[in-house]
Amino acid sequence: MKDFMDKDFLLETATARDLYHNHAAKLPIIDYHCHLDPAMIADDYRFGSITELWLGGDHYKWRALRTNGVDERFITGKDTSDWEKFEKWAQTVPYCFRNPLYHWTHLELRTAFGIDERLNPETARGIFEECNRQLRENADMTARGLMRRYNVEVVCTTDDPVDTLEHHRRIRESGFEINVLPTWRPDKAMAVENVDAFCEYVGRLSEVSGIAIRTFDDFIDALQKRHDFFAEAGCRLSDHGISEFYAEDFTDAEIALIFGKALAGHALDELEIRKFKSKMLLVFGEMDADAGWTQQFHYGTIRNSNSKMMALLGPDSGFDSIGEWSTAQTCAKFLDRLNSRDKLAKTILYNLNPSSNEVLATMAGNFQDGSVPGKIQFGSGWWFNDQLEGMSRQMNTLSNLGLLSRFVGMLTDSRSFVSYPRHEYFRRCLCNIIGNDVENGLIPFDGYEEKRVRRMVEDISYNNAKQFFGF
Fold it and tell me: Residues 205, 223: contact at Cβ < 8 Å?
């Protein structure tokens, strides 16, 4: 019987162990998509407790707690103490066997706090007090200190076009050695399905851009001005959270009328909404191509399914799930429109529904043009798929239908400063897949090919992302 999560955790062969320990593990982290709060980095925030650091905003853990029968007041409630919430999590952890949360929990305790003890009701109090002691007393247990601890080199946050980016400016001016860059996330500029919220957003955009927005052309001018502002702040990527791809046919006159109708506060029908979103995706794609950015598309989510809890807690609180749409044709049509105009930027496609793995892996191959290795990327296992089986499925699909060697690798997609072990988890998984192939005679491992295999692991773990994004 192997020890639980020993130094060779997930590494089944000697080759896998060599590839991980001598090649993948030592490399810095490029976290090119996350939801960290740049204000916390600017302030070098010190967390008040392990509960705040670990459980605040982590809807992965919130879902597990609810499933384990924990009352909401011990999850997001304001009338319970940090210890009471932590205690409930410690009681839940032993029920997480075979859920990636069990591995992540203990990787984070080990790598952030040096604690090898397993978390359960018997150890909870001691672990709680030791983590809090370190957070209170250790000079490096701050937002920046934790990033240094994990050997982070680049972080790309997620930011709205109307954001002032003042915290990114403060980070740069402070001389912080880790590169913290904004990412353009213009979802609200497409969200005409809620005309009241959309009109309010247009007002904010007008204010920050200094452009009076009366027409659709004004709207695009204001967004372009903000896009330029993001570029000046070091932005290299956009990101779009969409349920599905939009590629309706439309005319410019139709879009102008739809925008005017929305700005007047009149509800739009479903076709008008889809036409507007189709136009906006094209506009944003062209902006990104002109700026030399990489565009990312995260699609396939049913968000905020629980209307009762949405009203109580708001979005991003653990009530989203995998969606089911037929998007192959619209994705192809959207990418083809940009490509036909020579405006197809470097692109990463992430699907939440794993049944679309082969769809996206083959879709990426349609639009590779030889200008950039892996110009169109089939993105890493995302959200419900960033666990062992999901990551393995994604990499196996990419291997079969594309070039795994050109893959830009993992990201955290997290709001937590201790979620960087997800990169370790990914790298161990990667090395195990490749190491097993070597040992089974599926990949040669001598002469030139041995060097290529080792370099392949280093590229996927670090080098490809650095080169692809131009960091």
Answer: yes
